Structures are given as structure tokens and as C-alpha cells.
Amino acid sequence: MNTTQNAVNREVAVRAANGWTILSLLVGLLLANIGIFIWSVINVAGRENSHVALLIISILGLPVWIILLTGLFTLQPNEARVLVLFGKYKGTVRESGFHWANPFYSNGPMTAGAGIAAPAAKPGTPAPRRTQGRNKISLRARTLNGDKLKVNDKRGNPIEIAAVVVWRVQDTAQALFDVDNYQSYITTQSESSLRHLASLYSYDDGEENEITLRSNMEEVSQALRKELMERLSKAGVVVDEARLTHLAYAPEIAQAMLRRQQAEAVIAARQKIVHGAVSMVDMALKELAQKQVVNLDDDRKAAMVSNLMVVLCGEAEVHPVVNTGTLYN
Q1: Most buried by CB count within 10 Å: which residue of 3, 106, 153, 180?
Q2: Model pTM score
């Protein structure tokens, strides 16, 4: 069984010749060649056989200068061209501007979307495939807005989750040679990383100091970016930002989880109300005792506490009964 891994390619930055200088030189040589061709034709027509060789050279020179002119190319800011000569990597040109390189460098098309995005297709028709020749790769930051995925969290609850990833190509040699299609690789690995991340954390209601998807968005986003960096480094891609854009329970359990959250909120609110009511009753009894407003025995203190708790904790409006008699029977 062959377990040998392919060697990792590394980018080598090179400089290409100035395009304007080479263009001026080639145009001058082409015009000179055309002039020699015309002059040779005139002399050969006058039966001066001594110029036949010059005529042949000028004819052969025309396609040479035309082929050399095809080596001219331009690079926009944050764009690079990978130079490949007969299957061998020769380097990467990153400097923007007008350049000239060996016309025999590979001009194979890149994958769709390598440069400017293709225009949207009409409904019902397949999207056009936009290619970018001369092995050009965009170095600009690009955004991958992932689809909603249905996965299970740490507790096994089905949830819907989606993320947005901001990425850019850092090593053009790895992006072109170490993976078959780096954009498809990024999409697949991003989905795989998001699924794995969701299985590591609970949606919410975790244990004490436990990180959850709903309550700790920053920590979860950092963990997602770290995992993506490890996976996408094989394609020469760096992740600038990764963040969750959608998080919700799956529709089949959403109603049940909503009722649970509502119950937890009611319980928490009741706890605060009871705590506040007990504090107010205690304060009332202490104030009455300190200022000697009235002396109450244990039975009447219990009745007073009961009445105050009903007033303070009840949801409906309380209508007191006014006692017009004496304090004690």
C-alpha cells in the first residue's frame, strides 16, 4: 500500500519584465521585420536572388515576434499570476501593473470565480462558468456565506446553524497545486468544521462556566476560526474572520424548547420576586419593632407575614379588607 504524501509546494515570488519596455522593443522589431519583408519582396521581384535568404528570414520572423507579444499580461492590485513552464512551477508574480513573461508559460484557466464574479444567470438556466486565464489568482479578501446546516449539539438536540467566513489566498502555489480546486475545498472544509464545532458545545443551558453556542458567541467564533485555519492551511488560505450568522433549534423541537425557556424565565422571575418580598417583610417587622409602633405576638406576626407575602407576590391586584374594630378581640 502506497502511503507516500505529496510534497507541499511553497510560493516563490519573482519579478516579471516591464511590459511597456518589452512592448516597445517587440513593436519596433515587428515593424523592422515587415520593412525587411517588403524590401526583400521588391528585390526578389527584380530577380535579385541574393535577397531570397533575407526574405525567408523575414517570413519566419513574423510569427516569432507575434508569439513573443502574447507574453504581455496585466495584474490588478491584489492579484497574482502563477508561472508554470511545461508542468514545472517557476514562481509567482504579485506586483500589479503591465508585465511580460515567457509566452510559453501555462495560460490554463482557473476555477470559476477566481477573479471578478460572473453575472447572475436568468432563472431556469445554468449559471455561466467564469474563468480567468493565465493562471491568475485573486488575493483579495472574499466572503463565504454558508448555508443553514441541521446538526446535533453536544446534548444531541437538533439545531440549525450557519456561519460566514472571510478568507483570502496567502500561498498561491499551495492553492493551485496542493488541492484540486481550492474554492471547492474551502466550501467543503468550512461546512465540515461548522458541523464538528456544533457537536462540541451545547446550544444553551450548559453546566456552570460551560461555553455554549448561544451565550458565548465570541469564544465559539474564535474556536471556529482556529479550526478553519488548521484545515485550510493545506490550500494556502488564511481565515481573517469566522462568525456564526444563524443559530436556532430545529423546527421539530423549537416549540418544546421555547416552552422550556419560558418556564425557566418564569421561575427566575419568581425567585427574584420572593427574595424581594422576604426582604421587604423582614424590613417591615424590624421597623415596627424598633419604632415600637405596635407589639405583635408570634401568631399575629405570622398572619402579617402571610398577608404581606400575598400582597407582594400575587399577580392580581389585592383588595384589602379594612378592619374597623379593635386590634384584639
Answers
A1: 153
A2: 0.68
